[in-house]
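Troubleshooting: if your tokenizer reports a length mismatch, compare your output against this known-good record of 53 residues.
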Amino acid sequence: MDKSINHFHDAFLQISCDIGHVAVDGPYPSHPETNAYINLLRKIWPRVENPHE
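Known-good structure output:
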């Protein structure tokens, strides 16, 4: 399942004066190119420039 880091933006912008984005340690890194994927069988960006080639 893919999730966007901005999926909440439109809904919360209506009730908030500001929305902040932060980078935290956790199970999924902020930079996918640094994740040691074990079961990844397809090309993904940013690990490759054009994953659809």
